[in-house]
């Protein structure tokens, strides 16, 4: 490891377990903060770090989060020019039933090499406290800069919407899905305006996305939206299986890609990828409870250039063999206008992809 890489990594890690409300669900996570450059953990709201340079500070954009000695998540991290707190902090989802204790550390990737790890920090469920949003920065925009339309679906591995709707795949289950669906918008698999207006996906007061509350029963693939109910079809003897993407079970790394119809960056937006638990059976449908609680890959905000946020290479996909599904959520502070201008004027929204894969 070169001396420049060794000195460019995170240090002084702080970690706490916290919980958030997501509709009727309580979800837990680990709130990480660390020193990077002159940006301190829990850096004050003013003044900026000495090396901030209007967001152009030479901080890493890629990290690995290790939990209990295992690489559990790759993080691609971007930030707005006016806010330095996202440049050295991160929320690690733990789901609704976390373990009693976790030991967490992280390292950055700089110039193709990993830095040294931070020290390892223990967090306990019995010490979890409610989440509270960071203090607003002095020069933050009055209204979120994330209202531009966003659309898309997973391309590698290919999503069900990509196969059945975009590509009009001839597999019988895809043909039946197209017959059942009332929407042909492969790039807009989301809960729908009526549901999002009734229960906002974006919590503007606390600055996070609520998506868990939209998934009840085996309706993950459609987000519970009847317009896409064909995507919830389960394989059987007459329909066969969904088209699958083959992934190498022993690969050192994987590269995923996304097909955007509209790309925009925004400080509230994030990509998250989840994998089904070992032993999941596609014939039983796909419920949120079937997923591992920790997403193995996350991107926050997105890069300024679309081509830098279209593909992600990572080495944190859990080991699996056989059939599995990958669930991807891309969401943030966009969507329909709120009736009274509240919630930062927008309901929030997210787009959902289910990718059927087979590990060989």
Automatic annotation (TrEMBL):
Keyword flag Oxidoreductase: yes
Positions of the UniProt region annotated as Disordered: 130-165
Molecular function, one GO term: monooxygenase activity
Domain of life: Bacteria
Coiled-coil ranges (or none): none
Positions of the Chitin-binding type-4 domain: 151-357
A family per Pfam: LPMO_10
Cited SUPFAM superfamilies: E set domains
InterPro entries: Cellulose/chitin-bd_N (IPR004302), Ig_E-set (IPR014756)
Keywords, in A-Z order: Monooxygenase, Oxidoreductase
Gene3D superfamilies in the cross-refs: chitin-binding protein cbp21
Protein name stated in the entry: Lytic polysaccharide monooxygenase auxiliary activity family 9 protein
Native source organism of the sequence: Kitasatospora camelliae
């Amino acid at each position: 490891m070169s001396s420049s890489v060794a000195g460019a990594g995170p240090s002084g890690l702080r970690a706490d377990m916290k919980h958030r409300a997501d509709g009727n669900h309580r979800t837990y996570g680990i709130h990480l903060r660390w020193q990077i450059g002159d940006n301190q953990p829990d850096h004050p709201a003013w003044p900026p770090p000495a090396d901030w340079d209007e967001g152009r500070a030479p901080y890493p954009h890629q990290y690995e989060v290790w939990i209990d000695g295992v690489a559990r998540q790759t993080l691609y991290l971007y930030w707005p020019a006016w806010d330095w707190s996202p440049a050295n902090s991160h929320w690690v989802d733990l789901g609704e039933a976390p373990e009693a204790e976790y030991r967490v550390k992280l390292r950055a990737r700089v110039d193709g090499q990993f830095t040294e790890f931070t020290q390892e920090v223990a967090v306990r469920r019995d010490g979890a406290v409610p989440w509270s949003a960071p203090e607003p920065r002095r020069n933050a925009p009055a209204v979120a800069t994330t209202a531009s339309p966003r659309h898309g679906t997973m391309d590698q591995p290919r999503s069900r919407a990509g196969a059945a709707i975009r590509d009009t795949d001839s597999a019988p289950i895809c043909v039946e899905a197209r017959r059942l669906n009332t929407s042909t918008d492969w790039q807009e698999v989301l809960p729908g305006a009526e549901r999002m207006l009734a229960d906002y996906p974006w919590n503007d007061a606390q600055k996070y996305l609520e998506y868990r509350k939209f998934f009840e029963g085996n309706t993950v693939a459609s987000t519970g939206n009847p317009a896409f109910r064909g995507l919830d079809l389960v394989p059987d003897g007459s329909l066969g299986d969904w088209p699958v993407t083959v992934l190498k079970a022993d690969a050192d790394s994987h590269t995923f890609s996304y097909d955007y119809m509209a790309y925009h960056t925004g400080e509230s937006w994030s990509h998250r990828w989840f994998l089904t638990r070992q032993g999941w059976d596609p014939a039983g449908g796909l419920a949120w409870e079937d997923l591992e609680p920790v997403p193995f890959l996350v991107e926050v905000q997105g890069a300024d250039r679309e081509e830098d946020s279209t593909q992600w290479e990572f080495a944190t996909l859990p080991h699996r063999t056989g059939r599995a599904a990958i669930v991807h959520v891309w969401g943030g502070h966009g969507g329909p206008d709120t009736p009274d201008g509240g919630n930062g004027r927008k309901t929030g929204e997210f787009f959902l992809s289910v990718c059927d894969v087979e590990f060989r």
